[in-house]
User: Which sequence fits this backbone?
């Protein structure tokens, strides 16, 4: 049974790209009993039992490499997700107290005006602001007919009347991070979650729940399971480069809060249907899937009745792209939880889809053995 209180804390946590420490603290809170480390980029590593990878020596930022000479010679399976959410950074402060911004991640600009945001100062103080939108009364006929936007047109107003007030009273400086101001809710009557940052706090949540489910059987698993929560995915899948180098996985499962497409496409064409089950991704702009790994996941789903749906994406990317290029190539299974309106302020997802994603990951890991791993590693080809 998944604990949605954890998801609530993850969704509400402040954590745009490069400023993920609030999310790191929530993850540490719920990984009690597991080995836990973070690095200077805010990447987090967890294991069911301590090894050199997760325990370290307490030195400054010393992360030990995967000990191939360790007594535990099982293949390493990395559970991966990213910590960061799309957000903004204060770029400059104008004389009238309004602030220009740059984006941290891929927003569609038309979704940004007239929303509440939170600005965090270097001292950790939080200020509520509004993304500016010129009232219709002040628009010329030409402006009313023109729906185009540039990021330079979108400013943040925290209620100040001068640049001096922003600096001296609010303590806001250029470089301070900003996120959407949204509080998580769970609607039990219909099993729907509402909140921000489901891309990809849902993935972080799934790692925690998967590792909790496997805690008591770690010694019986065919693979050693490492959780890797990567920073800065939304600005170029950067954290995954580091986590993959540190963990050096033999295979990986990537969790992603994937964009639901059922509001836009009819049945049969939509491949990210909310309440349709876990989404198994075959292709996107970052990677081509491992067919044997997907076939194995389908077999698990059919055998155990785990609802799933297939996705062949025309665009988008995940950390799977960087992870798959590590070492001698890493087979990756991407499991998505369809989430409506990702990369905007507000998201919906279904509890049943989260449960399906966790169940799929748990059962895939439980079912791994020498024979099916040989097929996944393509050792049956020659």
Assistant:
């Amino acid at each position: 049974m998944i604990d949605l209180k954890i998801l609530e804390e993850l969704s509400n946590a402040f954590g745009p790209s490069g400023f993920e420490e609030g999310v790191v603290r929530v993850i540490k809170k719920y990984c009690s009993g597991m080995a836990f480390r973070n690095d200077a980029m805010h990447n987090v590593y967890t294991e069911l039992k301590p090894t050199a990878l997760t325990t370290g020596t307490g030195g400054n930022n010393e992360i030990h490499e995967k000990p191939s000479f360790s007594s535990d010679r099982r293949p390493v399976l990395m559970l991966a997700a990213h910590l960061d959410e799309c957000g903004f950074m204060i770029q400059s402060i104008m004389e009238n107290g309004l602030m220009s911004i740059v984006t941290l991640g891929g927003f569609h600009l038309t979704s940004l005006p007239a929303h509440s945001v939170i600005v965090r100062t270097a001292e950790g103080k939080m200020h509520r602001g509004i993304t500016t939108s010129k009232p219709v009364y002040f628009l010329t006929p030409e402006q009313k007919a023109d729906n185009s936007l540039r990021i330079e047109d979108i400013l943040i107003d925290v209620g100040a009347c001068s640049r001096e007030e922003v600096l001296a009273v609010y303590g806001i400086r250029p470089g301070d991070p900003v996120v959407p101001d949204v509080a998580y809710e769970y609607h039990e009557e219909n099993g729907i979650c509402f909140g921000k940052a489901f891309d990809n706090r849902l993935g972080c949540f799934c790692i925690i729940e998967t590792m909790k489910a496997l805690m008591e059987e770690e010694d019986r698993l065919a693979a050693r399971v490492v959780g890797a929560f990567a920073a800065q995915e939304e600005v170029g899948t950067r954290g995954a480069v580091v986590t993959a180098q540190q963990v050096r996985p033999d295979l990986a499962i990537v969790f992603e809060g994937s964009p639901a497409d059922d509001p836009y496409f009819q049945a049969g064409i939509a491949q990210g249907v909310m309440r349709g089950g876990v989404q198994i991704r075959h292709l996107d702009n970052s990677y081509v899937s491992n067919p044997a790994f997907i076939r194995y996941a389908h077999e698990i789903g059919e055998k155990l009745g785990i609802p799933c749906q297939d996705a062949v994406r025309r665009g988008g990317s995940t950390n799977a792209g960087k992870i798959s290029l590590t070492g001698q190539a890493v087979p990756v299974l991407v499991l998505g939880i369809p989430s409506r309106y990702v990369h905007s302020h507000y998201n919906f997802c279904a509890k049943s889809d989260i449960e399906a994603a966790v169940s799929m990951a748990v059962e895939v890991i439980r079912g791994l053995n020498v024979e099916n791993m040989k097929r996944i590693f393509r050792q049956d080809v020659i």
